[in-house]
Amino acid sequence: VQLVESGGGLVQPGGSLRLSCAASGFTFSNYVMTWYRQAPGKERELVAIITSTGSSSNYAGSVKGRFTISRDNAKNTVYLQMDNLKPEDTAVYYCRANAPNGYYYWGQGTQVTVSS
Fold first, then answer.
1. Residues 83-98, mean pLDDT to the nearest whole number
2. Which class for 52: exposed (0-12), middle (13-18), buried (19 or more C-beta within 10 A)?
3. In the list 1, 19, 95, 112, which could disulfide-bond 7, CB 3.0-4.6 Å?
4. Mean pLDDT of the region 27-32
């Protein structure tokens, strides 16, 4: 099982980034996918979640209206489009694959830094 995040980097406030998480080693289309983030000195927090089919999604209040989660089951990839980024969005972003039986897998994370 492997989850590989990419797309992080340094961006100015108000800018955009698109994170990707490429999955392998399991039946991606059976898994609910989530994005988490962890800022320095803070606990990891759930940012966005999308159902296995992509028919439904939900967001943390702090990112609602600015972030969009999506997935392509043909490419075994989940995305996080982040717009109007703020300095408080600075964190390491992780994707997590959630199995129907409650088990889950983490990616290694990608750093997002929002700064002028």
1. 98
2. middle
3. 19
4. 97
pLDDT of the residue at 72: 98
Token pair, residue 16, equals 């955009």
Q: Residue 62: phi, psi to the nearest 5?
A: -70, -20
Rounded Cα distance, 88 and 73, in Å? 31
Q: Hey, what amino acid is at 29?
A: S
Q: What is the DSSP string of 43-112?
A: --EEEEEE-TTSS-EEE-TTTTTTEEEEEETTTTEEEEEE-S--GGG-EEEEEEEE-TTS-EEE---EEE
Contact 82, 90 (CB under 8 A): no
- Cβ-contact 105, 1 below 8 angstroms: yes
